[in-house]
Amino acid sequence: MSEKATTVQDVARTAGVSTATVSRALSTPDKVSERTREVVFKAVEQTGYRVNRAARNLRTQRSNTALVILPDLSNPFFSEILEGISDHLSGTGYSMLVAGMTQIRDSGERLIDYLNDGRADGMIVLDGSLPQDAISSLTAPTHRDKIVFACEWTNQADFPSVRSRNRQGARDAIRHLYDLGHRKIGHITGPEGNVLSLERRDGAVAELTGLGIAPRAEWVIPAGFSLPDGRKAAQRFLKLKDRPTAIFCASDIQAIALISELQRHDIRVPNDLSVVGFDDIEMAEFVTPALTTIRQDRFQLGYAAAVLLMECISKDSSRDYAQIHQIPTNLVPRDSTAPLLP
Amino acid sequence: MSEKATTVQDVARTAGVSTATVSRALSTPDKVSERTREVVFKAVEQTGYRVNRAARNLRTQRSNTALVILPDLSNPFFSEILEGISDHLSGTGYSMLVAGMTQIRDSGERLIDYLNDGRADGMIVLDGSLPQDAISSLTAPTHRDKIVFACEWTNQADFPSVRSRNRQGARDAIRHLYDLGHRKIGHITGPEGNVLSLERRDGAVAELTGLGIAPRAEWVIPAGFSLPDGRKAAQRFLKLKDRPTAIFCASDIQAIALISELQRHDIRVPNDLSVVGFDDIEMAEFVTPALTTIRQDRFQLGYAAAVLLMECISKDSSRDYAQIHQIPTNLVPRDSTAPLLP
DNA sequence: CTGAAAGCGCTAACAT
DNA sequence: ATGTTAGCGCTTTCAG
Question: Listed GO molecular functions (chains A, B) (predicted)?
Fold first, then answer.
């Protein structure tokens, strides 16, 4: 028993103007005389009119919607990035469609379809590990201007992207430990093949080398970003004969799980071991000891990605690709690092 | 220089049939002869055709999109619920639009517009504190069948909803502490006015009372769900002259922050104080001591909400409202609770 | 089972 | 500055 929604026709009738005028008054108010504008607005209010997006989308060939692709919807790491994205999008009248790669794969959909079938005007990809076929379809000239990577990225194509200064962040972490007197410094890596893992590891190695410290292979412990990975890394650490006095972890949650597991084995942080994380998740400040970490501004990351995407979409001129925006990171010293005891 | 997308027309031409037949072959394959179906499918493949959603949406007056409303996009608590929702939606060909109430408010949009203007066919609301005017507009007969609450809910209208057995969960927490010998049991509440806070507090009080323990007002510490709230609660706790030997927290992150802060003041958990949380976030298992908590199945919560929404949307018969689906919770005993020492 | 034709509601030429 | 008109691409009566 749904009463018919009001249309431009209704508004036009009540306002005593043509539908075209109504449309103009709404989307390009300056192309209409002040008087008509008022009349139309009044009619809109009276009738409670709302433009029908489906109709507008069909006509304009735009959806005013952006798709955000996460590797994994359940990963809480992305929430703040989402907020940053949404914050800018909603300000520009865009809606945010969110999908996880797991679900996309399972449902047999293709990313490119969202762009082709009019569901989204562009997309922000937070997953640096898209399957090869997805990437190559997205690099088609029709689409490449509608895609922006954020946080992670892919080296297999030169999409514009927004990312943290991962390498510099890693260097800062190592430098911090060095300045505290540590010389035996280890690193727990992120997942193998992940771009972030690589950057952070390379940054750490570069800084160590620059400081005249030869990185020791057994102190670079391969892991992943997750909590279980941190725990496993701790177990590997415990088996080391000669242990480092400081560790740089590729992620905060990994660091938190590592510390927790080490504490169970009576290794005290920071007394026995200094630990630096990466991310500065909210929890970092609230664990004991509070975690020293490299902060990345996830809100900003998302926000900048949204800005960049909107630029890409709107810009008609041919663009320079491989635009990379880097968001600064910064060291947040807390209680999980301490000067090396003599 | 975007080459024109292929349309039904193109497919119809290559298949040598009418556009109507193509449409039928695609959406209602059984209403078409086997031969034609094959021909059409082949043509679709050849041309790389994809239905244009904007056109379909306009024509069918459906968007095949659901809107999910979070109170706060940056809150990581919701990610797993989102995954549950998306998991079901994507299986039914629906897309997921996500928005945070903060952004909605800031952009001056109204929730109801999403339903009216054809952006969404229905919505899942995870925010029990919608403004009054939003709620009343949503209760209009045209819309009430398109809305489902999940996790939180509102008492100001009888929308169908999916929620955890918060009250029972709270009772289980108290009972667990009681069974460990505790008689001096406190509670850190969630934010005032929040439906979850109320249920959990009421459940705790009811169980205490049932066990013959009179709840003590100073042991019910008002707080919120967040990390800072947990820390503040710890500070309140420290000021107590006569302290409880066990505490039930309204959320895990609150409990984690509380324990962390207490540890700094040399209160040992579980030796000096047993703590039970609520939620079973992934971190709960990885803090020290591992947190005893009441698990709510957030994936399931989201999944069930999506199922319920799809039912509501598709069902044409008049429905029984106020349908409430309750998801069981369960106690996960870990190391933050221990028998009361004599 | 299939085709012809109308039209969802809007905007953008084009004409005035 | 405003109105007329066509048509975005699809689905769905209605005929056949």
Answer: DNA-binding transcription factor activity; transcription cis-regulatory region binding
Global confidence as pTM: 0.95
Residue B3 has pLDDT above 70, yes or no: no
Interface of A with B in 2-21 (CB under 8 A): 2-3, 5
Pairing of strands B329-332, B292-296: antiparallel
Q: Which of A79, A87, A93 sits opposite B79 (nearest CB)?
A: A79
Contacts of B231 in chain A (CB under 8 A): 286
CA-based max dimension of chain B: 88
CA of A174 to C1' of D9 (A): 58
Candidates B53, B143, B313, B142; CA nearest to A54 is B53
Mind listing the pLDDT tens digit for each residue in A304-330? 999 999 999 987 555 666 689 999 999
Check CB contact under 8 Å for A99 and B90: yes
Is residue A15 pLDDT above 60, yes or no?
yes
Nearest CA-CA distance, residue B90 and chain A, Å? 6
Residue B253: name the closest of A99, A61, A286, A174 by CA. Answer: A286
Distance from CA of residue A251 to its chain's centroid?
15
Residues in chain A within 8 Å Cβ distance of B142: 1-3
Q: Which residue ranges does chain A devote to CATH 3.40.50.2300?
A: 65-164+298-328, 166-296
Taken as a whole, chain A contains a residue count of 342
Contact A82 B103 (CB under 8 A): no
- For A260, the closest of B51, B142, B286 (CB atoms) is B286
- Backbone φ, ψ for residue B118 (5° rounding): 85, 15
* Distance C4 C1' – B25 CA (angstroms): 17
Residue A296: phi and psi, rounded to 5, are: -115, 140
Q: What gap in Å lies between CA A152 and CA B54, rounded to an integer? A: 31
Question: For residues B186 and B62, what is the distance between their CA atoms, to the nearest angstrom?
Answer: 51
Nearest to B75 among A1, A65, A79 (CB): A79
The fold adopted by the segment(s) A166-296 is Rossmann fold (3.40.50)
Sheet containing A185-188: order of strands? A220-221, A185-188, A246-249, A274-279, A292-296, A329-332
Q: Give the Cα-Cα-Cα angle B215, B218, B223 (nearest 5 degrees).
A: 105
Distance from CA of A273 to the nearest CA of B (A): 17
pLDDT tens-digit readout, A140-185: 988 989 999 999 999 999 999 999 999 999 999 999 999 999 999 9
CATH superfamily of A65-164+298-328: Response regulator (3.40.50.2300)
C1' of nucleotide C11: residue with nearest CA = A59
User: Which chain A residue's Cα is nearest to B92?
Assistant: A107
The dihedral formed by the CA atoms of A265, A268, A270 and A274, expressed in degrees to the nearest 10 = -30
How far lies A108's CA from each of A101, A134, A329, B23, B192, in Å? 10, 12, 37, 21, 44
pLDDT, position B9: 94
- Positive or negative, the Cα torsion across B187, B191, B192, B193? negative
Among chain B residues 43-72, those with CB within 7 Å of any atom of strand D: 49-52, 55-56, 58-60
B103 contact A CB<8A:
yes
A35 touches strand D (CB under 7 A): yes
